[in-house]
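Standup notes, structure subgroup. Blocker cleared on the nicotinamide-adenine-dinucleotide input:
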Amino acid sequence: MTNKSITRRRFLESSGKATASLAAGAALLSVPQRARAQSAGDQLVLALIGAGGRGAAHAMGMAQLPGVEFKYVCDIWKDRGAGIMGDLAKIQKCAPQRISDMRVALDDKEVDAVVIATPEHWHALATVWACQAGKDVYVEKNPSNSIWEGRKMVEAARKYHRIVQVGFQNRSGPYAASAREYIAGGKLGDIVHVKVYNMLSGAKWEPKPDGEAPAGLDWDAWLGPAPEVSYNPGRHLDWHPWWDYKGGTLADDASHQLDLTRMALGDPPHPKSVLCIGGNYAFKSQRQVPEFQCITYDYGDFSMTCESGNATGYLSKFSGDVRYGDKWPHWPTAATRVEIYGTKALMYLGRHGCGWQVVAEGGRVIDQDKGYFPDKWHQPNFIDCLRSRKQPNSDIEQAHHSACLVHMANTSYRVGQKQLMFDGATEHFSNNDAANALLKPAYRNHYRIPEAV
Ligand SMILES: NC(=O)c1ccc[n+]([C@@H]2O[C@H](COP(=O)([O-])OP(=O)(O)OC[C@H]3O[C@@H](n4cnc5c(N)ncnc54)[C@H](O)[C@@H]3O)[C@@H](O)[C@H]2O)c1
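Run returned:
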């Protein structure tokens, strides 16, 4: 264990105490007053858009911070949101209002910020609308569903001077920052190759027949910017393997590892090219997004691969005692590990707060820094930035760059598993018209993001 690691642990402990005391302070709050926050002492008024598991977790986490109130819980499905409505009413002593159209919250001058935790195909439009309405935004990962719309999110954030924090929470983990410092300090030598793993378990995916939309669900609003189709439970309740809504496990878990890797490497600009090979090898599913993808990115100075899929259940995500405790993982069977190969040493870097270890010849661990699951820093960082107006840890610009790695790879797969050359300055492909046709989805009329946001 190095001195740096010990220092880092002390920092973690003191940060943990700070967060705990913030939470304790929240319990003493009287009924919130609804006014635009100007300083650290002022009340912040938020709205939750998308009251599923992740949205509810954020609302609970943020509402326990001092001076934060959720005025609205918005969901287009009446079945969703009852639990978090009740929990918020207890924490705030002031019940939030249940709405089904996010524009009610966006039109409300009292609302400072929105938390967007809908499926991915809504992220960009909701973010652009929110910025246009003068609201700050916390938007979940993967921030966009296409390269073009991700750029529009950046433009909207900058044009309207909005805080836009993305749910790539690893960026708030102190161990991610120490990994970045370690690599920038040259201790791995020159970086020559990076391997990003996302080797998860899964099962055969079966298509489901169309059916009646459940009572209380506004299916047209759920589709939003995506093409109009009949209600299908396989789309509604399992939107991940459809190009129109997400982009598979690459846009899901792998987007976290890709973003963490970019951060550790000092946020390199877009790669020069991408090649994605893949298929429905294991289960022979009829999924649009394949069960397995093997991707190579060319960064000029180094290469990066990403292996992502759903058929290797003997590998596993990091367990609780690794995420929240002192235990190190067994790296070869860690499903969401990153390997960064320098000319001097190899860094294993883990998501979920796992930490990093550097090994040299014979597997000797020569440096390490243990982590902790980073939500506890990421949510307060957003709230702090609403008041300080500083850039958040996962600002939309770098998050967009990370999301582009997902979109580039999926595009390569979709145009026939072709190597695509990417012009980072214009965010266009320079050797494939079919790939450029996938840069921007064909939005429905009333759900369009304008060219000039
Ligand atoms: N950062 C992380 O670690 C992490 C973890 C889990 C999920 N996520 C992300 O969070 C998002 C939500 O995931 P989830 O697991 O909570 O999904 P979920 O299906 O449980 O919840 C999504 C909710 O959004 C609602 N919704 C859809 N369109 C809407 C609209 N236009 N307006 C209002 N509500 C709308 C749905 O009815 C649903 O209740 C996804 O983007 C997912 O990738 C991130």
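Discussed briefly. The domain at 3-170+378-395 is CATH 3.40.50.720 (Rossmann fold).
Next: hand off to the docking folks.
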